[in-house]
Design brief:
The structure holds two protein chains of two kinds. By secondary structure, chain A is mainly α. Helix content of chain A is 60%, strand content 3%. In chain A, 37% of the residues are buried. In chain B, strands 6-7-8-3-9-10 form a six-stranded mixed β-sheet, sandwiched between helices. In chain B, strands 16-17-18-13-19-20 form a six-stranded mixed β-sheet, with helices on both faces. In chain B, strands 2-1-4-5 form a four-stranded antiparallel β-sheet. The chains are: A mainly alpha, B alpha/beta.
Chain lengths: 388, 540
């Protein structure tokens, strides 16, 4: 039946390859479904804007200029650390906010600053009020007078809030700018959440797939193991582990991963149990497909909808776990920009409501956006919607 | 009183039903008119999607809320379509009752049969517990449930399919209806049970003098059971009249096509000299029943118990039997998809001990086509991907374009347009999907194909086409088929050799021609009587 064919009697229509992104009709329909859900679609774009902004936080909020021109040389202080002796100082890392250095560089060239001139760990030493200092727009000119005077600009007498460096959302109790910490903290939380959710989904789906597909003894042993494993008291273990391992980003990721992968196993396992008796799986077996290929091509797509339903919740719980650990003080090392730490500061400084309010708003916004996005992604993948 | 003699029991005039979804209006039933006299049987026949069930459901307004009705349906002087809900409820379940196709899902699995039947009695005014119980027992006796007082506490899963349908009928009879709507009441049942249920309905119709609106796709049933018939196509009645004249002198081309659609033609002759493709000797599939703490094996479920067969190249062995007789298990065992005992020789090699890896190259020569064209194609893969899947495993050296070329050829062989290969299965009809499944099987050029009820889920006219296609492919490619079916008419058109199975054992086997002409075993005779004449023969 099969022989070499010439171009003239070609039966198969050519594969349509358009652009770098080849969308099957099914995926096109899913994309259209996603776009049709206005709330999810807008949430997606708002979240993406926030996410991209936070990814660029080094450029948006930093205590070093982005580009500087000094004595005929173009410098990139954000990316390259220059020793201060280059500009006539003595520190190993240049403090560009030091008025001496600033004046020296302005005299010998120019520099472009980020919109916010603080990094997450910059202490504002010229606060108008003792730290935590309220947002600058809440202050009166009289409160700013002292700080403005310290700026020591001799050309004209200036004694108002317009003349000092602004802290749009105030500072925390160590005089660090809240906007900068928010940007860096958002980045850290989202990245942590994404990595944790992705890795634990991969492990969870793989474990669920193996148990559901093979069943029998493998399933029985794994299920008992998971039951014991998930009944371990996570928080105590975390506290114990973090007492002898310095809790950094990756250590925390690892510890949380130990427990979070379990959440998807049951769903995927159940989906596989259901789908492995479908006739097309039997047909694939009759064609001689290996177990791996049957799982990847025939069964996993069935489990995606169930997985997608849970994914936004897993992502959110990853983020809140990190936030709550930081809040309790078992999280990231001191000084790290983290939303949980911001909330903790808000709790211990009730006289400075901008801390708690900012923290609360940004966390609520982030979690809500992620849930809305997840919801509409799930609806877009719903076969009843995408096949009709 | 005189008026009710002249007027029919149910008079439907210009009934239309349409559904509106997302602003679009779909007409499901288009201006149909028919009438039923008291005590008579009217059959609505048509293929799936012709609107026969919707017409029946619309009479008691059981369609989903989006449906719009127009026209008139007079049931003893009352227009059912205009009636308020309260009066309609009094008619439903009392004067008009229904029996559905699937007895497993139409009974509530959590209630005993006594509770299900007495619920209806209570709703329509029988309040005394003892009276109700007596009436339930009376009804169960009437529908032929053996030892009814002992079965009152039984749950639906404890009954067989036929018994469940009897309970459904008992529920329908509970209030002595004037009209019984039977929506494919026997389609899900085995042929012998089917014949029993029909006989029961016929007897009850006489006793109760009730009219039956009988919905079916099976013309054989219509001929035997109904007095009048309406042939439906795409929501319209294309022909109506009394059964004898419609069947002997069909006037509409669609009716003619339906009547001639029964699978025809003769199977290819079995060639004794052709090489044996597959043979099995005393094949057994026993599932252990384990009990107790130590999981001792106390007994076995003998799904297949000592079956011996051989299939020659270019010919077909038909396996017939009722559901649960082990036909499909036998097929899966031959393909080594489940564990079995007893030697299987495929193309001269003993494959009963071959490992999964050893089987992989052999699978190229043995394929299977399943019953359900909806369940056997993965909904998330395009047709090209589905058909090419075997090629990617068995002939990985092929390039994408070469693979697509072969897929195109296979689709053309099965009568599909190769240019549609990038579509998804849900865009095809049932018959086309079954062709895709056949294309997937023949794309590897196998020697042996198992056809597991490949026509059972299809409409009659499509069945005939698929049978013709299968015979044609067999002729050209000298394929060996193992053809499993409960539908004897289809088997007759394709199989040269016949195996009749019951409870995992072979009851009778031999040349198909001989068995059809002269069945030796009593069971085979009963099966044939039920299948070809819808007659009940006594069975042990």
């Amino acid at each position: 039946m099969v022989g070499p064919t010439t171009a003239s009697d070609q039966l198969a229509p050519p594969v349509v390859r358009t652009g770098w992104l080849k969308l099957t009709p099914l995926n096109k329909r899913r994309l259209a479904n996603f776009k049709a859900n206005k709330r999810g679609y807008w949430s997606f774009w708002i979240f993406m804007t926030l996410f991209v902004m936070s990814m660029l936080s080094n450029i948006l909020a930093n205590d070093r200029p982005i580009i500087a021109y000094y004595k005929g040389e173009i410098l990139f202080p954000v990316f390259i650390t220059y020793p201060e002796e280059k500009f006539g100082g003595f520190l190993a890392r240049t403090d560009y906010r030091d008025p001496t250095i600033e004046n020296e560089m302005k005299a010998q060239g120019w520099m472009i600053w980020p919109p916010v001139r603080y990094s997450y760990d910059t202490h504002n030493l010229d606060l108008p009020t003792p730290a935590p200092s309220p947002p600058t727009w809440m202050l009166s000119d009289r409160q700013c007078e002292a700080a403005a005077a310290k700026l020591n600009k001799s050309d004209h007498p200036n004694h108002g809030c317009a003349d000092i460096e602004w802290n749009w959302l105030g500072t925390d109790d160590q005089g660090r700018d809240v906007v900068a910490r928010l940007l860096y903290g958002f980045r850290l939380s989202v990245l942590f959440g994404l990595i944790l959710a992705t890795v634990s989904s991969i492990i969870g789906v793989a474990a669920g797939a193996v148990q559901g597909y093979f069943g029998g003894a493998i399933d029985l042993i794994f299920q008992r193991f998971i039951e014991i494993w998930s009944s371990l008291p996570q928080l105590y273990l975390l506290i114990i582990i973090s007492s002898f391992l310095t809790p950094g980003f990756f250590v925390l990721l690892g510890i949380l991963l130990l427990f979070s992968w379990v959440s998807l196993v049951h769903v995927v396992r159940a989906e596989f149990f259901r789908a492995r008796n479908f006739e097309y799986v039997n047909a694939a077996r009759a064609l001689g497909l290996s177990n791996y290929r049957i799982i990847m091509q025939h069964l996993l797509p069935n489990a995606t909808v169930a997985t997608l339903t849970f994914l936004p919740f897993i992502l959110n719980s990853s983020i809140t776990t990190l936030t709550s650990l930081d809040f309790l003080g078992f999280g990231l090392p001191p000084g790290s920009p983290s939303l949980g730490e911001l909330l903790l500061q808000g709790k211990s400084n009730l006289q400075a409501p901008w801390l708690a309010l900012t923290g609360f708003c940004i966390i609520a916004l982030m979690l809500a956006l992620l849930i809305f996005i997840g919801e509409s992604v799930r609806d877009a993948f719903d076969p009843r919607k995408s096949f009709e | 009183m005189t008026e009710s003699f002249t007027k029919p029991l149910l008079d439907v005039r210009d009934l239309s039903v349409s559904f509106s979804q997302n602003g679009r209006e779909t007409v499901a039933v288009n201006r149909i008119s028919f009438s039923i006299e008291a005590g008579e049987t009217l059959a609505l026949v048509g293929e799936s999607g012709s609107g026969k069930s919707i017409s029946a459901l619309s009479l008691v307004r059981l369609l989903p809320p989006g449906a719009k009705y127009s026209g008139e349906a007079y049931f003893s002087q009352e227009n059912l379509l205009k009636l308020d809900d309260e009066s309609l409820r009094k008619i439903r379940g009392a004067r008009i009752t229904m029996v559905f196709q699937e007895p497993m899902t139409s009974l509530n699995p959590l209630h005993t049969i006594e509770r299900q039947i007495s619920e209806i009695l209570e709703l329509h005014g029988l309040n005394q517990d003892s009276e109700r119980r007596a009436r339930v027992i009376e009804l169960l006796t009437e529908v032929g449930i053996p030892n009814p007082s002992a079965r009152l506490g039984a749950y639906p899963h404890q009954l067989s399919g036929g018994q469940r349908q009897r309970v459904m009928i008992a529920m329908a009879l509970a209030n002595k209806p004037d009209l019984l709507i039977a929506d494919e009441p026997t389609t899900a049942l085995d042929v012998t049970v089917q014949a029993q249920i029909l006989a029961l309905l016929e007897r009850l119709q006489k006793n109760y003098h009730m009219a039956i609106l009988f919905i079916t796709h099976d013309l054989g049933l219509v001929r035997r059971f109904a007095s009048h018939v309406c042939v439906m196509k795409k929501g319209e009645i294309v022909e109506k009249g009394d059964v004898i004249s419609v069947f002997s002198k069909p006037s509409h081309p669609y009716t003619k096509a339906l009547l001639s659609a029964e699978p025809k033609g003769l199977p290819l002759k079995e060639n004794e000299n052709a090489p044996i493709v597959i043979s099995a000797d005393n094949l057994r599939v026993w599932f252990p029943i384990k009990r107790g703490f130590m999981r001792r094996t106390v007994d076995h479920i003998k799904a297949v118990d000592g079956v011996t067969l051989k299939v020659h190249a270019g010919s077909t062995v038909g396996v017939v039997g009722e559901s649960g007789s082990g036909k499909t298990t036998l097929a899966l065992a031959l393909l080594r998809l489940i564990r079995s005992e007893g030697p299987i020789v495929f193309l001269g090699n003993n494959i009963d001990g071959a490992s999964v890896a050893d089987m992989r190259p052999i699978r190229r020569d043995m394929q299977i086509v399943f019953q359900d064209p909806y369940g056997s194609l993965s909904p998330r893969m395009s047709v090209a991907e589905i058909v090419a899947e075997g090629l990617t495993v068995q002939r990985p050296e092929l390039s994408l374009d070469a693979r697509r070329e072969i897929v195109g050829k296979a689709l053309k062989e099965t009568g599909l347009d190769p240019s549609t290969m990038d579509r998804y299965p849900h865009e095809f009809s049932g018959g086309q999907r079954q062709r895709i499944a056949i294309a997937r099987a023949i794309v590897l050029e196998p020697k042996f194909i198992v056809l597991d009820e490949p026509t059972s889920a299809l409409d009659m006219s499509v069945q005939a086409q698929i049978i013709d296609l299968l015979r044609d492919l067999q002729n050209r490619m000298s394929l060996a088929y193992l053809f499993i079916s409960h539908d004897l008419r289809v088997v007759k058109a394709l199989a040269a050799h016949l195996i009749v199975m019951r409870h995992g054992k072979v009851v009778e086997s031999g040349s198909a021609e001989e068995i059809f002409a002269n069945p030796k075993q009593e069971y085979t005779r009963a099966l044939f009587a039920a299948a070809f004449h819808n007659k009940v023969e006594p069975l042990d």
